[in-house]
Design goal:
7 helices, single chain, mainly alpha
Length: 196
């Protein structure tokens, strides 16, 4: 007795579904950088094509140049922002004892902060003893912020790693994208016919 063609493909389909599930379980956390690499490479493909054309078809050099430009446009602002935040926080900690000794200087500084300065100044003016304010309010708050800052630093490291992976994958998508697209089309044509 001959098996129905769809019954013959059932074990293969179950195997492929199981393989896809295992791949997702193993590579699931890498899915986001992979998708971002595909989206960004697709969105910037016209610029890559012009760059490749300007470089006489040298795809490796064009891909490297594109990754360099994207790295600078993404990473440079992040480094700048991080250094500004670090400098501001360091300055705040350095000047805090002096500000606590001089209420008028502290209130004047707080008033210069856009949007929330007046409210902060009013909050500080409610305290008679600024050193007591520091012990009861600021120091516990700073401890909580430092714990949260460590969590954020870990998250920043993870995000930086994901961006490095994204840029790495984009290099190969740029360099080998046309070949990859042709191979995928060929595979779909073999699997589902000429509709691909």
């Amino acid at each position: 007795s001959h098996m129905n063609p769809s019954h013959r493909q059932l074990p293969l389909l179950l195997f492929l579904a199981g393989l896809a599930l295992l791949a997702y379980r193993i590579l699931g956390h890498l899915l986001e950088p992979i998708l971002w690499a595909i989206i960004l490479a697709y969105a910037s493909w016209p610029l890559y094509r012009r760059t490749k054309l300007a470089l006489n078809g040298r795809s490796g050099l064009a891909a490297s140049l594109m990754i360099g430009l994207l790295s600078i446009s993404i990473i440079a602002p992040l480094i700048g922002l991080t250094s500004v935040l670090q400098r501001e926080f360091s300055e705040f900690i350095q000047h805090l004892p002096g500000w606590l000794e001089q209420r008028s200087a502290l209130e004047d500084r707080l008033n210069r902060i856009p949007v929330i300065g007046d409210e902060l100044s009013e909050w500080v003016s409610q305290w008679d003893d600024l050193n007591n304010l520091a012990k009861q309010q600021l120091i516990p708050q700073l401890r909580g912020w430092s714990r949260r800052l460590l969590v954020v630093a870990g998250d920043v490291g993870l995000i930086a790693g994901q961006w490095v992976l994204t840029l790495f994958l984009m290099f190969f998508l740029y360099r080998d994208g046309e070949t990859l697209t042709a191979e995928v089309r060929h595979g779909f044509k073999r699997a589902i016919g000429e509709r691909a």
